[in-house]
Amino acid sequence: MEGASRNSLAAARAELDRVTSIPPGAAPDAGIAAARRLAEDLSAVAALVGAEPALRRALTDPGAPAEARTALARRLLSGKVGEPALAVVSVAVSGRWSQPTDLRRALEELSIEATLAEAELADALDDVEDELFRFSRILGQNPQLALALTNPAAPAQAKFALIERLLAGRAHPVTVRLAQQATVDRQYGDIERQLEHFSRIAAARRGRVVAVARTAIPLDADQVERLRAAVSRYFGRQIPLQIDLDPSVLGGVQIRVGDEVVDGTVLRRL
Questions:
Q1: CB-CB contact of 242 with 212 (8 Å)
Q2: Residue 155, SS3?
Q3: Given pLDDT bands bounded at 50, 70 and 90, which one contains residue 36?
């Protein structure tokens, strides 16, 4: 997204954080249920905006006053989605968008953020982020499984059922739902990239980056902890570490933090 769209997404994300926040001392259960409903509502609105080009243009028309765009959104959606979703959508459509399709993309991303807010309220965001990353790597190593989950001829419900069989009882329910969504949402490419994108959004919710270590063989707990400590010392702050098993590196380790790469693999030396 270009500058105007990024700014509008940031404003809508701030509103999403407001409506999903829990007052101090309040029980998180109600907030978890509300975040789940919000994610479903935002996903439905994104689908509507994506399917109706005329509506998409009307909601992003830079020549129309922000108040008129907001009023249109509320008139169409009142009674169909909850007030939290209306609040987030109202802020979104009041912003400026570089392209009309950016609004749909933003609403889809906000739906993911709401789902991750549910995990955050359940104190499971770390687990979900790690599970998404690990599942993306499993799919990368199993092309036939990835193909089964991305085959356009296969019904969505069949893909959802396969995800359920693979992950139920082994991953958090939020991870299962996001993996199911990744089978039908191809905004960021194949399913592995989609899952990686979801994992990065989860990391961003904590306002931090993630270090990814590529190694040829599994590391034991002590090695992982020493590697995590070394990375955190290098960057001067605590940085979570994800391990990506990749036999092609032959040996050693490659560390990637954002765009910065420290490559100590045997493959690079060869």
A1: yes
A2: coil
A3: very high
